[in-house]
Design brief:
With about 160 residues, the protein is mostly beta strands. It has no helices and 14 strands. The strands form 5 sheets. Strands 7-8-9-12 form a 4-stranded antiparallel beta sheet, with no helix packed on it. It has a 4-stranded antiparallel beta sheet with strand order 11-10-13-14, with no helix packed on it. The two termini are about 30 Å apart.
Amino acid sequence: YTNDTSLGFAQGPMGLSNPSNNTWTGYIVEMPAGTTIYYYIEASSNSGKTQVRPITAPKGFWKFTVEGSSESNNIKDDKINFRVFPNPAGAITCIPVSTNQNLNCSIKLFDVLGNEIIKVFEGTIYTGEKKFFFDAEALAPGAYFLVLEKQAGEKYCEKLMVK
C-alpha cells in the first residue's frame, strides 16, 4: 500500500481471520482523512507459486479514500499508534507500533484476571514503525488484554480475542 505511487509500496502481513469463510485480514497504517490509499495483494502458495491482484499489479492497483476518523479501540495520540491483528487471533499475531519519538516501554499480554501471560517486548522502540509478533495458537480461547506501558507508567490497552 502507499499514498504516493511514485515512492513505491509498503508491505504488511495478512492473517486468516475467519477460516470458516476463508477471510484474510491485513493492516494499513492509519492516515489522515482525505488521503487516497493505493494497494494490491500479493500472496504465495505452499507450493511457492506467487500471484498478485489485480493481475496487473504493481502497475495496476486498487484505491480508496480515507473518510473521517475511526471510532475503534485503537490507541492513538500524537506520539503512539498501537494495534493488534488479526483480532480474533488463532495463530501468529502482529502488533504494529508507530511512534514519532524513541519510546522506552514494555508490551505484555494479560488474561482477564490480570495475570501476565506473555512478555512480548521490553526495551526501546525507535522513531517510526516496528512490528512485534507472538503465537496465539497455544493460548486458551477467550479474552485477553495487550498492554503497552511507557517507562513513565502511562499504559495503553488493546483487547484481544483468541479463538
